[in-house]
Structure formats: C-alpha cells, structure tokens
Amino acid sequence: MAPQIxxxxxxxxxxxxxxxxxxxxxxxxxxxxDVMDNHFVPNLTLGLPVVEALLRTSAxxxxxxxxxxxxxxxxxQYAEAGAGSxxxxxxxxxxxxxxxxAIRSAGARAGLxxxxxxxxxxxxxxxxxxxxxxxxxxxxxxxxxxxLDVVLPKVRRARALIGDRxxxxxxxxxxxAETIERCAEAGADVFVAGSAxxxxxxxxxxxxxxxxxxxx
Length: 216
Ligand code: DX5
Ligand code: ZN
Hints:
Keywords: Carbohydrate metabolism, Isomerase, Metal-binding. The active site is at 34 (proton acceptor), 172 (proton donor). The protein has eight helices and eight strands; from the N terminus they run E-H-E-H-E-H-E-H-E-E-H-E-H-E-H-H. The protein is of the alpha/beta class. The relative contact order is 0.17. Zinc ion binds next to strand 2. D-xylitol-5-phosphate binds at residues 8, 10-11, 32, 34, 65, 138, 140-145, 172-175, 192-196.
C-alpha cells in the first residue's frame, strides 16, 4: 500500500484546532486524534465532545487513538460518532474482540494499539478482527519524545505476521524526517507525526516531505 500520513493534533494549537486541521487537509490522509484519560497514560487531552466538533469541520477522516483505561465502553461511541478509524490498546481492553467488532459494525476501521514493551505475537490470531495495527514507537502519553529504535524489530515481525492480510501497520511516536525511512523500511505504511508536522514552519510541506521519504 502507498504510505499514508496521519498528523497528530496533539502538537497542534488547541485554541485553534479547526484551523490547524484545515492547514494539513490537502497534504495528509488522516487526522490523528490522541484521546488520553490520565489513567492509561499520565496525561489528559480531549474526549468525545471535541471529536464530535472536529468531525463537523474536518475534511479528512479522523484516526482516533484511544489511550484510555476503558476502551470497551468508549470506543464504539467514537465509531458511531463518525470517526474513520478507532484504535484501542491491547493493554487496556478487557474484551478486545468484542470491542473491535463493535467498532467495525459501527462503520469505522478497527485498530489495535500496542505499547513498546508489549509483544505482537499474542495478537496473531486476532489479526483478522482488525484493520490496523498501531505500534507505539515511544511510551504513550506525550508528543515530542525520542523515537525508540528498539521497536523496529517488532515492526518487522508484525509485517511478517500480517502477511497478505489487509491490515495497515501504523507507527506512532517520534516519527520525523530522521526516523520515517527506518520505519518504512521495516514495513510500516501509516505514519503518525505530531511535532514533526506542527513544529514545522509549514506543516503541509512537512507532511509532503514525510510522504516523499516514506515512498523511497
Ligand atoms: C503519544 C501519541 C502520539 C503523539 C506523537 O502518546 O500517541 O500520537 O502525538 O507525537 P510525536 O510525533 O511528536 O512523537
Ligand atoms: Zn497517537
């Protein structure tokens, strides 16, 4: 699959979210929305009401990444609201198969996220239940952290496990001009970038450059 870029609005200006989404709309494929509850991760961001507001203004589909303790309860509501993709964390979900199915039946793509120290192999048997596997390349919770190279072997193993299943492989955390080529070479095809996009002078141009590098 051609690489896709999903800029994370965690690094955008929260006082002008709609504008910051609009400036990358022609360049990006998705808008990555980090939902954090201060329990699963030590940070608190936004929830369903803000996602609903973004859905009313965004020209791009929303890629909602739920870093929350009770995804089984909340994830289907993000899908029902109209998110294009909803990712739950393996470490948090108590009934992942049921929740992934609920996301799909509400019409969204179902994603499964795994943290840097969580192995991918235990999830091989449920790859048929998901549309995207998200591999965290930093510990979740904050933008602007340093890319964890130690996750790259897992990206390779995940790509091999996916085989010819129609499952996208997303990397999230520390993805930048310096690291995106390594991620692409290891087999990732959806790239989340927060600080590398919104920290740039021209965010849309930063997205185009990242795409060019991922295509190499
Ligand atoms: C971190 C979030 C990421 C974050 C990435 O927990 O899941 O999506 O916004 O930010 P950067 O690209 O700056 O590492
Ligand atoms: Zn994220």
